[in-house]
Amino acid sequence: MSFEESLRRITNNIEDSLGVAMVGMDGMVVEEHKKDPLLDLQSLGAEYCAVIKDIERVSSSLGLGSGREISVITDKAIVILKKINEEYFLLLVLGSEGNFGKGRFLLKREIAFLEKEL
User: With contact defined as beta carbons under 8 Å apart, do 101 and 5 qualify?
Assistant: First the structure.
C-alpha cells in the first residue's frame, strides 16, 4: 500500500475533509490527497511546520516533552496536525463544521501504517 492510498483512506472516510498531506519537518509536502483543488497544502505545510517547531521549542524548555498533536480551529476550517515520527507529520484540513473527533481517529489509524512504511 502506498502513502497516497493511506491519505485517500482518510479523506474518503470523512465527509467534510478538504485535504490531507504528509509533510516533512522541513515543511515540504511528501504526498497529498485533496478534495478541494484550491486548497494549497504546500503553503499550509510550510507554515504549520514553523508552528510545530515553535511549540516543540516551548514544550521542551518547559519540560513538557515532545508535542504529538496540534489542532487549529478557524472560521473557515479545522486543521489537525499529528506527528508520525520526529521527521514527518500529517496535516488534515476539514471544513469548519467537520467531524473533529473522526478526523483525529482516522489520522491515528493511518499513522500506525505510515510509521511502519517510513
Answer: no
